[in-house]
Amino acid sequence: MGKIKAVFFDQDGVIIDTERDGHRVSFNMTFKEFGFTDEWSVDYYHELLQIAGGKERMKHHNHTTGFSKPIAAEEEDELVKAMHKRKTALFVELIETGKLPLRPGIHRFMKEAMDAGLLIGVCTTSNEQAAKAITEKVLTDIKFDIVLAGDVVEKKKPDPAIYNLALAKTGLKPEEVIVVEDSKNGVLAAKAAGTHLVVTTNHYTEKEDLSGGDIIVTCLGDPDGEKGQLRKGGTGIEYDGVLRVRQLIDYFLMFP
Fold first, then answer.
1. Mean pLDDT per 10-residue run, the chain (256 residues)?
2. What is the pTM (predicted TM-score) of this model?
3. Which of 69, 96, 123 is the endpoint of a domain?
4. Does one domain contain both 184 and 233?
5. Active-site residue 10, yes or no?
6. Catalytic annotation on 182?
7. Given 10, 159, 214, 222, which residue is catalytic?
8. Options 12, 17, 159, 182, the catalytic residue
9. C-alpha span between 94 and 12 (Å, rounded)
10. Distances (CA, A) of 217 to 24, 59, 243
């Protein structure tokens, strides 16, 4: 049985509930700036979330629904890159101005991981600038040992490439790592990499097939704040709405 040595976190929907009120809003602001009338609704953006990567979502939208103004095929790549760059800047501004708070329990959980001597990593397909805004300007008291973001790997989730890269860079075995994810694509990526997996659901992902998670909760929970609900796993854990790092270390020793 392997000892837990690290926790790797997805970013969007895990650290900050960014998708509905962050990325989606930033996309719509960008479209308006670039002269498009497209506006992605909450439900439509949920559909687009099944595609990993912001640039990929815009291309999918262009190839299926189509933007309000036609985009020539030879101009698509550069325009999408330009819009994604602007969208990221707007998204980072939302984070830095405190309009997107941390999810319940995430800061406490990271502090507990630090105190337990675990390595802490972020593994996200979100833009590197956005990842830095969160890790360097919001979570300033957390020591991140590895931050992998954006196009650091060619294949995005549900492919396990980003978690395989994190394992390679840290020299850890899959059974020594707990991944915290929130979506079907993230679940598939983490399990394909062979890690332990805790899932924290949110508005967009609560109805997805997340059954691959070893433990599923609605949020990590805070003693003096919002409590989570246990949806799967956790046998033997004295669960009170707050999922603690020490509990998980012991749990995955019992259920490797």
1. 88 90 95 98 92 92 97 97 95 88 96 98 89 92 96 92 98 98 96 98 91 98 97 96 97 90
2. 0.85
3. 96
4. yes
5. yes
6. no
7. 10
8. 12
9. 13
10. 24, 33, 8
